[in-house]
Every structure is written in C-alpha cells, then in structure tokens.
Write a structure and sequence with these properties.
The structure is a single chain. The chain has two domains: 36 residues; 110 residues, Spore Coat Polysaccharide Biosynthesis Protein SpsA, Chain A, CATH 3.90.550. It starts with 6 loop residues before the first helix and ends in a 7-residue tail after the last helix. The chain is globular. It has a four-stranded parallel β-sheet with strand order 3-2-1-4, sandwiched between helices. The protein is α/β, with parallel strands linked by helices and 183 residues long. 41% of the residues lie in helices and 13% in strands. The longest helix has 29 residues. It is built from seven helices and four strands, in the order H-E-H-E-H-E-H-E-H-H-H.
C-alpha cells in the first residue's frame, strides 16, 4: 500500500481536490448571482418537455407538480415513448382537467437518433414556447419555471443546464449519488 501512495499520486489528488473546490465555489457564486436577476416585464412562454417511458410510478407526481407552479405562461408536453405500462392512462386522467398538458405519442426511432435523444427531438418539434425546459419524468419539484425563467436572459445565455437536488435515503446513495454528475 505504501508503494502505491507515491509523491506524484498525492500531488495529483490534491490538485484534483482543489479543482473540485474551485468548481463548487464557482457554482455557489453563480447560483447566488442567478437569483438576483430582475424578472422581465413580459414573461416568455415556457415549454416544459418530459420524455417518459414506463414511468407509471413517477409521472403523476412529476406532471402535477409542474402544472401547479405559479407562472403565467407555460405548457407541459409529455411524450409517451411507447410505454407498455400505465403511463399513458395516468397521463390521460390528468390531462382531462388540465388544458396546459399535452400528451404526445412517440414514434419509432428514425435515423441516427434513438432513446431519450429521439424523444426530446420529437418534443422540441411540437413545443410552442420561447424557452424549452427538458425535465426527466422522475422529478417532482414545482416552481422550476418561476425560479429559472429569467436566468438565460440575465446571464445572456442560450443554454442553461441545472442539476436538481437529488433525493437520497440510504448511506450508500448519499455517498454515491453526488458523484454521478462527474461521470
């Protein structure tokens, strides 16, 4: 074991930890700066786009939390990507009383796009908003539109990527899940 801990390995580990610390500090600064942007006088229409395949356990909570947000101009589009569970039935029940929800039926992949990329491409073609928010079907956090709609214009950015807070329950999840964004 002592032969493994060479001087260069220790130096490289310290450099890596310094880089991680700098990234964390930069992200904290950016988050605080993003929250200080002045809301625009006109709210852009936001299309919240959710690719879903066999998400019967998660889809109701996700869609209902997004529909319940306090934002004046948004639509929620869910692409049922050929699910073989109750995802479509659950979505139809929700859509019955929610005019802001549109359900799209995914078509088989064509060309080079497959999987989630193909589903997101189909969603983007049907979206009518000025901003597109792509959200995984296993999320359940309302308020994302109200909290982030002014970030792209305030940062003069064309693309905004966020990492949501992960719900973890076991010690193993608490140790491993934070590192998934590094992989």
């Amino acid at each position: 074991m002592l032969n493994y801990l060479t001087h260069s390995l220790i130096v490289n580990l310290i450099i890596f930890q310094i880089i991680v610390l700098l990234v964390i500090l930069s992200n904290i600064r950016m988050i605080h700066r993003a929250r200080r942007h002045v809301p625009p006088s006109v709210f852009p229409k936001v299309s919240i786009l959710i690719p879903a395949r066999n998400e019967e356990r998660n889809i109701a909570g996700c869609v209902q939390s997004l529909l319940a947000q306090d934002y004046p101009s948004f639509e929620v589009l869910v692409l049922d990507d050929q699910s073989d569970d109750r995802t479509s039935t659950i979505l139809k029940q929700i859509a019955y009383s929610q005019p802001k929800l549109r359900i799209l039926r995914g078509s088989p992949p064509s060309g080079d796009q497959v999987g989630k990329n193909w589903a997101c491409s189909q969603l983007a073609r049907q979206a009518k908003g000025d901003l597109y928010f792509f959200i995984d079907a296993d999320t359940s956090r309302a308020g994302c539109t109200a909290n982030t709609h002014n970030c792209p214009s305030g940062e003069q950015a064309d693309l905004l990527t966020g990492f949501p807070r992960q719900e973890v329950y076991t010690w193993g999840e608490r140790l491993l899940v934070p590192f998934f964004s590094w992989v």
